[in-house]
Amino acid sequence: MKLRLPFATLLLACAALTGSQPPAAEKGLKDYYKDYFPIGVAVGPSALKGPEADLIRQQFNSITPENAMKMGPIHPEEFRYFWDDADRIVAFAQANKLRVRGHNLCWHEQTPKWLFKTAEGQPVSKEVLLQRLHDHIDTVVKRYKGKLYAWDVVNEAIADDSTQFLRNSDWYKICGEDFIAKAFEYAHAADPKAVLFYNDYNTERPEKRERVYRLLKKLVDAKVPINAVGLQAHWSLQEPTQKDLRAAIDRFASLGLKVQITELDVSVYPWEKNRRAKRPGEGDAYTPAQEKQQAEKYRMVFNVFRDYKNVLTGVTFWNISDKYTWLDTYPVPGRKNYPLLFDQQLKPKKAFYEVVKF
Q1: Is residue 1 a part of any domain in this protein?
Q2: Quick check: is 278 in a domain?
Q3: What is the pLDDT of residues 170-221, one digit of tens each?
Q4: Of these residues, 52, 66, 156, 204, which one is catalytic?
Q5: Is 177 a catalytic residue?
Q6: Which one of 263, 272, 296, 354 is the catalytic residue?
Q7: Total structural domains in the chain?
């Protein structure tokens, strides 16, 4: 009888014997998880050529435009759209047979200033703002109809303050909570086949989980055309716990919604919301202790993900490698957070091998 070990286990064993790092992965994440769920990555136009493009093709079978489809970049002026970056990403996806998630149609950040103002600089009425939202969603969704399978329709509408329900954004100040349901209705009308998501962060924290659940239940009960919930998964070495992660997936799936991990990274630093300056030495080194803890955290969360393969319909990493991540500029500009499975040279880290060792 021959003992058959997983490929990743053999790589690690060889590395231990030789004292070297494991060689580059011959199979991609998408191949290891082909019987579970698609594995995606957030990209910008600059990643569509050279070594990063090669890594995308090798590892992933879904992409999300990191910024190119947000309202500010794609619709900077009321009567002008900027399509170039989004079109390039979609064309790359089609050429390489990758699925595309659209991100996002309605958010309180990265929105153009004209949206909420009249020509005289006064706040617009609810009717005007909803019409602008309709026109934006209708135009963008119809442009990519049939090329994108899903959209993050409303992003981060729940307040950070645990004593409040909805975020006191300009959307909410002008429209109340009606903008949320309307956004889903407009998106569904523009592309009835698209899977429509509500997307948010810290969804594994019990108190925020329950506020997100409350919003989703209201939408489902009102027959709003929402299909799914996106758990952003901007995590750290400290969170989430396995218990909280499982509880969140169970809670949202109980509504009959599909669940996706939409923006996965595991920072070596705890979650922070507010911007601050970098402290001396912070982020200058990726320590062996951090590397070990990060690998353990990634192993845990992917063990959970595999347990929910009948619930989860995708896992998307937020950026390709530690060479560039959004955490380089937020919340601590200039601090490296080393949050992904590939290092600054695009090589797989220990965490990669833990993710594929099953």
Answers
A1: no
A2: no
A3: 999 999 999 999 999 999 999 999 999 999 999 999 999 999 999 999 999 9
A4: 156
A5: no
A6: 263
A7: 1
